[in-house]
Amino acid sequence: MSEKTFLIRNVAREFAEKYLKPVAKKIDEENRIPEDIINKAREMGFFALRVPEEYGGPGLSLQESVSVVEELAYASSALAIMSVVSGDMVAYPIMRYGTDEQKEKYLSLLGRGGIGAFALTEPCCGSDAAAIETRATREGDYYVITGQKIFITNAPYADFFLVAARTGRPEDRHRGVSLFILDKSPCIKISKMEMMGYRGSGTSTLYLEDCRVPTSNIIGRENEGFKKIMMALNEGRITTAATGLGIMRAAFDLAFEYSNQRKSMGKLLIDHQMVQYMLSEMATLIEASRLLIYEAARASDENRSDLPKLSSMAKLFTAKSGVDVVRMAMQILGGIGYSRDSDVERLYRDIKMIEIGDGTNEVQRMVIIRSLQGRIRLE
Length: 379
What we know:
The chain has about 375 residues and is of the alpha+beta class.
């Protein structure tokens, strides 16, 4: 770890310990992050991780971003995933593919503390992003977008949205998808959802009703948005995995501390061989996940051709390992861990999202095998 990354990580850790950890339970219960926490996160640049310094952001590499997200997730997965979406999945496509005007307007907005949301998933076709039905129709100097999006993180907090919409025929599938920047507007109706985990991150359904978007707000060319979306997902899967890593660490620490305090059958839990086995397994899975996540982040920073494969491997392995780690933590805590008064209960609900969001475990396996077959390449 470089000195810069070490310092950045420590700043995120101090923020999480001072501001997030004391209210993590409240965030989960109320499904809302307090405004003062959101504002402090804005000031720290957590919603603009990948935004270059020239636009007011911290200009972090993906490896540095991963270290921040991991620390935030250790205290609150809700704020961590908000950071992932706005600071990486929204910022990166604009940074890489946007026009100078788009960068100046929207990256600068993020750099000033604005929040972005990534609107891809639809009720019709969660894992089949090439089948989206939201339609963007060209009318002179505007596109008119109509449709529905679901499971959109950050939606109630967002100042603007990256929206995937169909500009070609349905049978064109991925060859008929474009990516637009849509400012917050009355044409966007937001319905907040009650989710099992990551509560507080603003997960919502969006109803887009004849939203008029200037043609200058399309990212790249018409019908060529799908590859840009996939590149955003390559990065997003790595940082999403980093939220899982933070959750795993938190669960392990709770289980380790409890096993050193609780006695059973005349001795501490940690002196029982089966508990030792579980803690050893947990620690190993955490370290293996960390190595794979940071290697995938390095592949992104170096623009390596194995990025899609490593990105999906990192997310798949962390998802599976994360569920196992938090399950073992709950097993060590027993009835206390199963109680709503326990942080492990919240972590258990949170970790499941890693197996579903940004592509399910099954989708990750598809990406991995296609990468091994040479069917997926970077642009």
